[in-house]
Sequence to fold (247 residues):
Amino acid sequence: MERSKKRIALFDVDGTLTKPRNNIESDMVNTLRELKKKIYVAVVGGSDLKKVSEQMGEFFPELDYCFTENGLYSLKEGKLFHKMSIKDALGEDRLKQFINFCLRYIADLDIPIKRGTFIEYRNGMINVSPIGRNCSQEERDEFEKYDNEKKIRAEFVKTLKEKFADFNLSFAIGGQISFDVYPKGWDKTYCLQFLDEFEEIYFFGDKTFEGGNDYEIYTHERTKGYSVKNPQETIKLLHELFLDKEE
Ligand code: M1P
Fold:
């Protein structure tokens, strides 16, 4: 049966479809397959294509839309159709000033451990990690706990907001060990411009609190926002909203 363009379900990835930075599990794949028989299915993640495609695993080719880096690198039915660059928006000089400042700030940070890849440059955003992105899963879990208590990332973001107030940047703490930086307006709502044809957009995310990277899209007038705590809660909600309903 032809699906109508009336409804689309749009999901955050980490904490919503998968455990943070983990791959999708088979119960979620099966649920999304059932859902796709009824409505369109898309994801919007802060991460880049490599990470989102790894995490979505066997369901990745089945996505109707895949908005990586908040939609700054967007695919429809597996094909790239839109790309935006932070380098062009900010200019090399400002970009360099910003990166240099972050590296100095991290060098002076006294935290229990540091690893490598403190700055990850992506198409549409910069990802900054005080511990370094190539820490192990155990080290990332430890950092998250430490950061919850010491607010290392929140302090860092506060400093950057003051120092670079005229750069027109947004900051989002979306995961466990890092935060994302991009021009204002390039948050997850950016992807909504590509979904004009849908009457109803159901958004599911876990970081829906103010300051979380799902907040803007969760509260946006174009979406019906649902806040979840983990993938199991997402599955439960999908049953209540779509799968267990006779249509
Ligand atoms: O999808 C949420 C976030 O996932 C990762 O965060 P972290 O590595 O800190 O757990 C990053 O890819 C980040 O960009 C993204 O927003």
Summary: The chain has a mean pLDDT of 95. The pocket of 1-O-phosphono-alpha-D-mannopyranose is lined by residues 13-14, 20-21, 45-47, 51, 127, 174-178, 180, 213 (CB under 6 Å). The longest strand covers residues 200-205.
